[in-house]
Every structure is written in structure tokens, then in C-alpha cells.
Amino acid sequence: MTDTTLTLIRHGQTDWNLQGRLQGRSDIPLNETGREQAREVGRELAASGRHWDALVSSPLQRARETAELIGEQIGLTLSGTYEDLVERSFGDAEGYDCTGKSDEQRHAFMEEHGETTEDVIRRGIAVLQRIVADYPDQDVMVVAHGTIIRLTVDRIRGTKLHSLANGEVLDVTAAEVCAASASEPRP
User: Fold this and answer.
1) From 65, 87, 94, 115, active-site residue
2) Is-catalytic flag, 87?
């Protein structure tokens, strides 16, 4: 078993985040607040004294730019992108204004209009397992999107996380990722 740790980070804010709109795979850029959030996360991680060997991200520009801004703070350049780290597809609902919907209502709406939860989880676990295989015994920073991170970590740990804030950071170990099954919830 590898000693790899994955530090999962949700990208910084976009105008669509601010407006409460579903982004999904729409390639929306960071706004100035999002850029500052990324720099702040980078400063906090640099001050933590931890070490990372690699930095990867989703190919969508909001995640890529967040990774690059964090990398400037911790002394890493982006090692690459993984297509399967992209956000959940919301299909024809991308751009829909979810203002006023509770988390539960918003998540039900996402399930109805986009990629299924199980498909997102399957993809999320598979890509994290691939990153662990690509970076054995290394600590890797992974910048991606709120829904794919939340659903994947929920399955890996058997939890129910809240919606992630822009710039929120979660760690998972290679052991957790490798033990995860994409098809069966953990007890």
C-alpha cells in the first residue's frame, strides 16, 4: 500500500457561484474574489509546514487557475490535468439559478437534470485511484469541483458532507481511496 495523501481543494469563486447558478462543465473563469481565495488557500497551506510533491487539477479553467495560484504560494507548478476531475454535468440545467433552494432541493435538482450521483462517484473514485497510481508514495494536491469532491469523499468515508465552500480543503489517504468501491456505499 502506498503512503500517498491527496489534498482535495475546491476551486475559488466564479461569478456563477456568486449568482447561485449551476456551473457543471460550463467553463466559467474565476472572478477576483476567487483568485484571492486561491491565493489565501495557498498561503495557509504554505504556512502549514506540509510538503506536496505534485499539483494536479481538473482541466476546467476555474480549477486550473486555482491550482496555479495555489502553486505560486507553495512553490509547485501544475503537473497536469485529469479530464475525469471535471464537475458533474448538469446537462440542460447548467446556468440555472438555484438561489433560494435549500441544499437538499438543489441536490435533488442536480440529480434530476444531470449526471447521476452514482456516475459521479464512480468517476471520482476511479480518477483518485489513477492519481494514487500515477504518484505512488507522494503527497498530491488535487484541485477540482465541489460536487465531485463531496460525493466522492462521502462514498470513500461513508459520510454526508455539506456543500463545500470555494477553497475548502479535504485530505484523503491512498488507503481510503484504494479501499473504496465505486458501487457500494460504506457502512
Assistant:
1) 87
2) yes
> For residue 187, what pLDDT band results from cuts at 50, 70 and 90?
very low
Model confidence at 1, pLDDT cuts 50, 70, 90, reads very low
Cβ neighbours around 29 below 10 Å, total: 14
Active site residue 44: no
* Amino acid, single-letter form, for residue 37: Q
CA 147 – CA 124 distance, rounded (Å): 10
Q: Report yes or no: 21 and 53 within 8 Å, Cβ to Cβ.
A: no
The vertex-51 CA angle with 47 and 54, nearest 5°, equals 120
Which one-letter amino acid corresponds to residue 106?
R
Taking only the tens place, the pLDDT of each residue in 106-116 is 878 888 888 99
Exposure string of 91-112, with b = 16+ CB inside 10 Å and e = fewer, is: eebbebebeeeeeeebbebbee
